[in-house]
C-alpha cells in the first residue's frame, strides 16, 4: 500500500485556540518562496524590542521537485548543459539550490532593511548527504540513508556580526551535532529561559568554541562523541549473516548480556574513531569466497545458507575520511570500547515505533490531503474513566507497534538483492575453480 497526499497548512493561535487551514492555493509554489514570503511579513510586523526566533525548513534541495524555469535556463547556461549531455534530474536539483540561495539573500535584505541584521545570528545547516544518482558527495563515500560519511557529513556555518572579528571566516574541525544548536543558541542569545525545564539534554553548549576570540578557541571542543545511528530492527533476520573473525568472539559474549547484537545497524563517532555495525559494512569478498570454496569442496558441516562477511568496521575518520580501510582487527580494544558505548545507548534508547499502514489514514479519504483521522475519546463521547483508559490503550497499541513486514521490505532490501546476485556469481566462480 502506498499513500500520497497534500500537506501544506497554515496554522494560527488566537487566544489559545489553534486553527489551521490547508493552503491548496500554494500548490506548485516552491516552499523556499512560501517560507521566505511569510518570514519577511513576520519581520516587518515584529516589535524590535522583543527577541525573535525563526526556523526555516526550506525543503531544498529535496523532493518533490518544484522548478523555476528561469533557474533551469540559468543552470543550463552556466554549466553549458544541453539536452544531450545533462542529467535532467540533476539540472532540476541545481535549480532548486539556486532558488534556496536567492531566498537566503532575500532574508538577509529584509533583516537589513528592518534594522535587525546587526543583532541577528544565522545558522545554515543540513540534515543529510545528497541522494544517489542526482547528487555528488565526493570525496565522501555513499549518500543519503547511509551512515558512511557521504550520508552524514554535511556543510554548516554560522554568521553574525556579534561574533569576534578574529573568528569570521574561520573553520573548526571540532565535533558538533545538530542537537548542540539548542543550548548553543540559548547561550549565545543570553536567553535566561530554560524551555527544557532543566532536564538533561543530548546537546552540548558549543558557544565557547564558536564565539571565543581566536587565541582562546580550544583545540578540542566540548564534544568528543556522536551517536550516528541506532536501528535494532533492520538485522535482516531472513539472511544468515555471520562475522567469523576470532577477536570479536569474547566481545560478542559480553554484549549479549546487554542485549546488543553486532547485526544491529548502528554507527558511532568517538574522537578520531568511527565504528559501524550491521549490514552496511557486510561485504567482504575474501571471507565469502573462502566459505564458498570450502562448501564446494564438500565440507560436511558447512551451512549452505551461511553468508560470511564483516559486521563490524572501524575507521580512523580523521586520516581515512573516505573510509577505505577497516582497521578493526588491528584495534580490538577500541572496537570493544565503542561497542560497549553502543550497547549502553541501546539499553537507554526509546523503543522504535514502526506501525503498519492503516487504510483509514489514506489521504484519499480526505480530498487527497493528510488529515488527522483518529478521534479522541472525548470526540467519541466517552465519559467513563474506564472507557477513556481502554480507548487510549488501544490507540497506544496501534502506534507503538512494529510491523516487521514493512521493516523487512524497506528500501535497504534492494541492496541485498544486488548482493545476492553477486554472491551467485561468486558461487559459480568457486565451483569452476574447484
TrEMBL record:
Keyword presence, Calcium: yes
Domain Sulfatase N-terminal: 20-187
Keyword field: Calcium, Glycoprotein, Metal-binding
The UniProt record lists the keyword Nucleotide-binding: no
InterPro entries associated with the record: Alkaline_phosphatase_core_sf (IPR017850), ARSB (IPR047115), Sulfatase_N (IPR000917)
Cofactor: Ca(2+)
Parts forming coiled coils: none
Family the entry assigns: Belongs to the sulfatase family.
Protein name: Oidioi.mRNA.OKI2018_I69.PAR.g11577.t1.cds
Source organism per UniProt: Oikopleura dioica
Amino acid at each position: 500500500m502506498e499513500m500520497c497526499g497534500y500537506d501544506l497548512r497554515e496554522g494560527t493561535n488566537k487566544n489559545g485556540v489553534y486553527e489551521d487551514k490547508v493552503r491548496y492555493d500554494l500548490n506548485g509554489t516552491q516552499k523556499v518562496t512560501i517560507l521566505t514570503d511569510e518570514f519577511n511579513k513576520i519581520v516587518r510586523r515584529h516589535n524590535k524590542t522583543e527577541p525573535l526566533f525563526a526556523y526555516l525548513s526550506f525543503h531544498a534541495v529535496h523532493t518533490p521537485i518544484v522548478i523555476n524555469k528561469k533557474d533551469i535556463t540559468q543552470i543550463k547556461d552556466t554549466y553549458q548543459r544541453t539536452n544531450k549531455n545533462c542529467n535532467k534530474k540533476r539540472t532540476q536539483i541545481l535549480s532548486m539550490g539556486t532558488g534556496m540561495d536567492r531566498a537566503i539573500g532575500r532574508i538577509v535584505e529584509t533583516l537589513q532593511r528592518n534594522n535587525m541584521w546587526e543583532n541577528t545570528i544565522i545558522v545554515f545547516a543540513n540534515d543529510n548527504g545528497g541522494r544517489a544518482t542526482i547528487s555528488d558527495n565526493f570525496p565522501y563515500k555513499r549518500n543519503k540513508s547511509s551512515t558512511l560519511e557521504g550520508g552524514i557529513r554535511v556543510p554548516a556555518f554560522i554568521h553574525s556580526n556579534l561574533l569576534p572579528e578574529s573568528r569570521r571566516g574561520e573553520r573548526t574541525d571540532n565535533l558538533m551535532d545538530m542537537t548542540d544548536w539548542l543550548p548553543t543558541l540559548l547561550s549565545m542569545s543570553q536567553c535566561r529561559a530554560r524551555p527544557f525545564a532543566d532536564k538533561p539534554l543530548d546537546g552540548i553548549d558549543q558557544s565557547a568554541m564558536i564565539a571565543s576570540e581566536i587565541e582562546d578557541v580550544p583545540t578540542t571542543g566540548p564534544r568528543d562523541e556522536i551517536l550516528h545511528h541506532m536501528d535494532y530492527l533492520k538485522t535482516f533476520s531472513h539472511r544468515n549473516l555471520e562475522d567469523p573473525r576470532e577477536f570479536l568472539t569474547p566481545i560478542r559474549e559480553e554484549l549479549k548480556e546487554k542485549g546488543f547484537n553486532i547485526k544491529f545497524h548502528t554507527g558511532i563517532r568517538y574522537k578520531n574513531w568511527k565504528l559501524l555495525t550491521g549490514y552496511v559494512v557486510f561485504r567482504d569478498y575474501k571471507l565469502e569466497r573462502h566459505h564458498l570454496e570450502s562448501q564446494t569442496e564438500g565440507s560436511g558441516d558447512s551451512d549452505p545458507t551461511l553468508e560470511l562477511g564483516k559486521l563490524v568496521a572501524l575507521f580512523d575518520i580523521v586520516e581515512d575520511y573516505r573510509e577505505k580501510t577497516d582497521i578493526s582487527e588491528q584495534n580490538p580494544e577500541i572496537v570493544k570500547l565503542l561497542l560497549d558505548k553502543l550497547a549502553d545507548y541501546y539499553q537507554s534508547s526509546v523503543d522504535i515505533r514502526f506501525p503498519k499502514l492503516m487504510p483509514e489514514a489514506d489521504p484519499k479519504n480526505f480530498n487527497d490531503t493528510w488529515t488527522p483521522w483518529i478521534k479522541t475519546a472525548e470526540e467519541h463521547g466517552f465519559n467513563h474513566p474506564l472507557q477513556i483508559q481502554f480507548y487510549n490503550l488501544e490507540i497506544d497499541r496501534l502506534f507503538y507497534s512494529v510491523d516487521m513486514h514493512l521493516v523487512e521490505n524497506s528500501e535497504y532490501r534492494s541492496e541485498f538483492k544486488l548482493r545476492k546476485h553477486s554472491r551467485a556469481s561468486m558461487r559459480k566462480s568457486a565451483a569452476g575453480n574447484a
